[in-house]
């Protein structure tokens, strides 16, 4: 990124942090958390401990970070190296990202930036200008991406509440600031469990690694009565609804499943898992030493803020997470994809000089699809 772009982003971010510090949620038990931040074009600074709002504010103003992070874990000594921190417990966090959902819309709004010649195109494997294969993909997620991610959040919330006895009040949903959502679970019975147990939890939630026997199927002489009932709780109930469709079809479909045999059932189970399992990134949930983007901070991949969604179904990140100023700025834009922010449409732009509001300029510069003119 060129110096003028960095300067512009820093100024815009600084203004946001100065005016909207109220949006930054200092997590509970602040002094037990590890904080970290990144500046534009530089590495990560971690192992920071912060005691108050005031200290956090100071950190923002002194450093003007591109990204700010905070641990889900609680430590006795958050500022010491990892093996001396004395891990106590950690909130449960789930990451749902549109890019992991295999959506068919994705190709329509993903571009490739050539690392060798900077050519921007929709080519997916090779630069159309210099044939280089060093392409960096940038996506401008569409409404479908956001809606599909919301669906996964709802599926996850249902499993957390119905199967894992987590109370609704302890589940907080945040827009990640770019392509998805982070779901935080506070004060649950899972606070103290380690990485391996969290991994098992993700297997359960995403319905992975499950065996036909769980759903009544056996290699030899399967018993009709072992198949799930339509109204059962948990995955057996969800399996019934997905596979039987309705109560009246249950018997007929069980006969079919038994006739088709065990390996066919395994295939059915894979399909069911693919369609109704919750699509979360297991690595994120398993990692008990990770630092996560701080709620209220800006995501430098987009210039949008990570904010809590109190009304998920109506939430529109392209309106509600865009906080930067409307001041006009001139940029050279090269964004082959049209996008919408704060109810205004922008682009497509083909290597042209345009004057746009700061929030749109920041979005494109963060996506590497524009530079300051
Ligand atoms: Zn190229
Ligand atoms: Zn999409």
Overview of this structure, please?
There is one protein chain. With 373 residues, the chain is of the alpha+beta class. The protein has 2 domains: 3-100 and 142-203 and 281-372, DNA primase, PRIM domain (Alpha-Beta Complex); 209-276, no CATH class. 31% of the residues lie in helices and 20% in strands. The chain contains 10 helices and 18 strands. The protein has helices spanning 3-19, 53-63, 143-162, 195-206, 234-244, 250-260, 262-276, 282-286, 317-320, 358-366; strands at 35-38, 44-48, 67-71, 73-75, 87-90, 92-97, 110-114, 120-121, 135-139, 171-175, 180-185, 291-293, 307-308, 328-333, 339-341, 344-346, 352-357, 370-372. The strands form 6 sheets. A 4-stranded antiparallel sheet has the order 2-1-3-12, with no helix packed on it. α1 (3-19) packs across α10 (358-366). The structure holds zinc ion (2 copies). One zinc ion is lined by residues 103, 105-106, 109, 141-142, 144-145.
Task: Write out key terms for the chains shown.
373 residues, binds zinc ion, 4-stranded antiparallel sheet, globular, DNA primase, PRIM domain, alpha+beta, 2 domains
Question: What is the secondary structure topology, with strand pairs?
Answer:
Layout: H1 3-19, E1 35-38, E2 44-48, H2 53-63, E3 67-71, E4 73-75, E5 87-90, E6 92-97, E7 110-114, E8 120-121, E9 135-139, H3 143-162, E10 171-175, E11 180-185, H4 195-206, H5 234-244, H6 250-260, H7 262-276, H8 282-286, E12 291-293, E13 307-308, H9 317-320, E14 328-333, E15 339-341, E16 344-346, E17 352-357, H10 358-366, E18 370-372
Antiparallel strand pairs: 1-2, 1-3, 3-12, 4-5, 6-11, 7-8, 7-9, 10-11, 10-13, 14-17, 14-18, 15-16
Helix pairs in contact: 1-10
The site of one zinc ion has 8 residues, from helix 3.
